[in-house]
Amino acid sequence: MIYLDNAASTPVHEKVIDEMIPYFREQYGNPSSIHKYGRLARIAIQDARKRIASLINADEAEILLTSGGTESNNTAFYGITHQSKGKHIITSSIEHDAILEPCKRLEAEGFQITYLPVDRHGLVNHEDVEKEISSDTCFISIMFANNEVGTIQPIKEIGEIANEKKVTFHTDAVQAIGKIPIDVKELKVDLLSMSSHKINGPKGVGALYIKKDVKIDPLILGGGQENGLRSGTENVANIVGFGKACQLAKDNMSQNQEYVGKLGRKLVFEILKEIPHTTLNGHPEKRIPNNIHFTFLGVNGEDLIIKLDENGIAASTGSACSVRVQKASHVLKAMGFSHEQITGSLRLTVGISNTEKEIDETVQILKKVVTELRAVSPYKEKYNF
Ligand SMILES: Cc1ncc(COP(=O)(O)O)c(C=O)c1O
User: Is the model's pTM score more than 0.85?
Assistant: First the structure.
């Protein structure tokens, strides 16, 4: 199989697995215990926290460990809005469901939500953020990089505006961390969501960066772990793995960026050359290096995924995190795509484990599969396939 669904999840790095294993076999203590086992587990968590903080230039005390991106997003939303006086939230129309669903619930609880539009490339205009802020605005949440089309949002500009207007600013950076340099201080973000399994770490662990002076209400109550902000015995092995994944991502950032970017550019170049009636979606420059999103006119994306799977390629139409419900992409809709363009979309996300040979094979298989599907397409006449 050729795995090109790295935005959905990534293989766990061997070095990450090696660091995790002792925490299953020998160092299985509860970090809250006073004895040596407990102390070792506690130290391991603190070391991991330092590595996680270092990836985004935060202080370790600003890192809240969670079960992943979804919990981090939910904690940010409820943690801020439960204690705020204002009842207005600004977000974008292309967020992940882990933002849109909390928004829906808050709407039902009486909050007013502004969903900012995006342009054809999936880009939010930071001036729109400024225009929408009112005295009632308590929270802004704009994703760092989109999980479907990879567009990177103007986070620094939005951070400036939010900071000036004194509105708490959160960004869901699940698809961006480890792929592009992120400095929370420079970007002036108050809260930032991270997930481990998108950067060659284990699933079910992540973090929420919470700027020092920002106060949030806990979502999970109990034994008071994580300074009372997230109760429950810590998932030590996973946290250690996430820490190692962050350290590897930081140390190898520029070489990974270059490698993955090179594979991605090759894939784009070859596919646009070999397969007619194909467009590359998302922003031409402001995009994370691993994301490639195409529309193949006259092809049904679901059929394409199935055929590719039969031919040994794992790809996706968009978000894998919204379970297996097939609904038209809200991201592509917001970008103004027609039903036909949405239907024919395919996301290929490259990772550090992919090879140039795999890219060559993918181009040939994709060409064959698209040609086969177009031969039986209802749009055959329209496009003269
Ligand atoms: C942008 C974005 N936010 C949040 C999530 C959810 O993260 P997790 O799977 O760690 O809960 C994902 C997962 O794909 C994502 O892409």
Answer: yes
